[in-house]
Amino acid sequence: MDYNNNYYWGMGAIWWIVWIIFLVWIFVLPYDIPFQRKKKDSPLDILQKRFASGEITNEEYQEKKRILEKK
After folding, report:
1. DSSP 37
2. Are 68 and 47 contacting, i.e. CB atoms less than 8 angstroms apart?
3. How many domains is the chain built from?
């Protein structure tokens, strides 16, 4: 068999493509995969966290919650 006639070049090209796709998948796509990126907290979520940590009182929480729910 004569291997100098680029008989296996096609398979080598396929492996280069596979490796490039694999590297792109590892380093670029995790940000676009659903449920991988941490979603941003809504204003109501932030308010609930502040209330749970004791930063604001119940009255402040209720007032701000009412305002946020009107929007």
Report:
1. S
2. yes
3. 2
